[in-house]
Design goal:
With 536 residues, this protein is an alpha/beta fold. The protein is 62% helix and 7% strand. It starts with 5 loop residues before the first helix and ends in a 12-residue tail after the last helix.
Length: 536
């Protein structure tokens, strides 16, 4: 196969460096603008609520995501950009981490080339725009991989400590750190160099350090009767085979862009064939575990939430190996890689453009008729602006945790917003946390007669789910009268306001069609005899 001369390698290294730095600056500028203007995603707003109450953990996640938000707002004040700043920084470091891994395989040129592939991978290039746990989790896993690759070569204690620190940070960020541990176990048991590693004391030091990351998980779950583990392992997963999950490779191809997905699978195949060589054994074991294990897990686990990002660390390991594989490939394969990189960059651009449109009311209106309407990003500001005046002694209540969190974020840290016991609260693992904070329906039931402004998101649930939930609200609180509504983005976001009173426990539910909340929502959706008016 063709090999490059040293002089041409140096020229290529300079070219890749220039390309990467130019694209990196452009990407950072775009991400900063979007992060500063895009309304919080519903989950983001709830993580922000968690940041107001520092703890060892929460019902949905370990504490690092909330800690990062809290630390940033403590320094820079309350705001959407301050909340997202640590995640922007960590997201910006990911391609540099991939480049550092690649340099150990093929020198400086390989580092810049791999960093470019990682930067233009849509899932990775957009990471950090939102304050989500996948950002510190991916950073931590790559940090652990950097320590592992270096420790296997040098056996220095500081490299083993880096491996342990990365794994500890991953555990303190998300329960999905378990996949990184599984990937390491596959390497240690299935690869010749891995089996020899069991005899190195540094490995056991790294595992001891990694165990410290489990401390917050243990402390929280012991105090919360295992709420976090129960949600992650039991409540969110059916643990039954569902054939629709066989389309996961198609989902991954869309998430990575098809040509890039094909290229990375080829790199995985090449790494597996060369697994007897260093460091392809590490690449094959780690990336292979992330891709294959998540596919198998997806056949039985959570099938209701977005999961295309789960194997991202595996794809980034493969990006680090791309230059080393292409160095021994035919010219045609290299040309295909360039084409894959270009189409991946277009995919990243499309993703950032989508978020950019969602960040402005005019842009979101452009997407109003699109199937992929960004409903979780828009409507919150309009809803907060339309809040009716609250007399003294009146509490603010939302009909689900997401609307409650978004209103709380807009109103500021000093506000208090309760949530009714929506099915969404349980689906997303937030019900135990709201109960622990005293912000759920039980807290309202303990204050019968309390006057409230009730905000109802009529578009949060669909079809029969919406009818059943909205029709039950009249049994949960005493509706006094409607106060107003927001119909935004061609009706894709509809939020209604009611004056209501808390009652001592839920009344016997009537038919949904007997509830004012459901009937007004039905009419406003255009399914009833008349269109819902803008004001009652």
């Amino acid at each position: 196969m063709p090999m490059d001369e040293p002089s041409s390698l140096a020229v290529r290294a300079r070219r890749w460096r220039g390309v990467f730095l130019a694209l990196f600056v452009l990407a950072i500028v775009c991400k900063v603008v979007i992060a500063a203007t895009l309304s919080p995603f519903g989950d983001e707003a709830f993580y922000w609520q968690e940041s107001l109450r520092p703890a060892w953990g929460y019902s949905d996640l370990p504490p690092v995501t909330a800690w990062l938000m809290g630390a940033s707002e403590a320094v820079f004040g309350h705001g959407v950009f301050a909340m997202r700043l640590p995640f922007l920084v960590l997201g910006a470091l990911l391609p540099w981490q991939v480049g550092a891994l690649a340099r150990r395989m093929g020198g400086a040129g390989a580092g810049w080339q791999a960093a470019t592939f990682a930067l233009l991978l849509p899932l990775a290039g957009s990471l950090g725009v939102m304050a989500l746990p996948d950002v510190p989790l991916t950073f931590a896993i790559l940090l652990a991989a950097q320590g592992m690759v270096r420790a296997l070569e040098t056996n220095r204690i500081r490299d083993w400590l880096l491996l342990g620190a990365g794994l500890a940070l991953a555990w303190a960020t998300h329960y999905r750190a378990a996949m990184a541990m599984l990937a390491g176990l596959v390497f240690l048991t299935c690869m010749r160099r891995g089996r020899a590693t069991w005899r190195r004391p540094g490995l056991w030091v790294a595992l001891l350090v990694a165990a410290f990351g489990l401390v917050p998980i243990i402390i929280y779950n012991v105090g919360a009767s295992g709420a976090g583990v129960a949600f992650q392992l039991v409540e969110r997963n059916p643990w039954a085979f569902h054939a629709d999950a066989l389309v996961q490779p198609l989902e991954q191809a869309v998430a990575c862009t098809p040509l890039m997905y094909g290229l990375l699978l080829w790199v995985l195949y090449s790494a597996w064939r060369r697994r007897a060589e260093t460091p392809f054994d590490v690449v094959a074991a780690l990336s292979g575990t992330f891709l294959v294990a998540y596919f198998v897990l997806g056949l039985f686990a959570d099938d209701l939430r977005f999961r295309a990002h789960w194997p991202l660390p595996g794809y980034l390991f493969l990006c680090a190996a791309v230059p080393a594989v292409l160095a021994r490939a035919w010219v045609a394969a290299r040309r295909f890689a360039v084409l894959a990189l270009a189409t991946s960059g277009l995919g990243l651009l499309a993703g950032l453009a989508y978020l950019g449109l969602a960040a402005s009311p005019r842009g979101a209106l452009v997407l109003a008729n699109a199937k992929a309407f960004p409903s979780h990003f828009v409507g919150w500001r309009e809803a907060a602006a339309a809040l009716p005046p609250r007399p003294a002694g009146t509490v603010l209540v939302a009909d689900n945790f997401m609307l409650a969190a978004e209103l709380h974020f807009v109103l500021g840290p000093s506000a208090t917003v309760y949530s009714l016991d929506s099915p969404l609260n349980t689906k997303h693992g937030r019900a135990p946390q709201l109960r622990a904070w005293g912000l759920d329906e039980a807290a309202l039931d303990a204050r019968p007669g309390t006057r409230m402004i009730l905000a109802v998101d009529e578009t949060a649930l669909k079809d029969e789910g919406a009818r059943a939930w909205l029709g039950s609200i009249c049994a949960r609180v005493d509706i006094v009268r409607p106060l107003g509504r927001v119909d935004a983005f061609a009706g894709r976001r509809r939020i209604a306001y009611y004056e209501a009173k808390a009652r001592a426990g839920m009344a016997a539910p009537g038919l949904p069609d007997e509830c004012m909340v459901w009937m007004r929502a039905w009419r406003a959706s255009g399914q009833g005899d008349t269109r819902g008016a803008q004001q009652p």
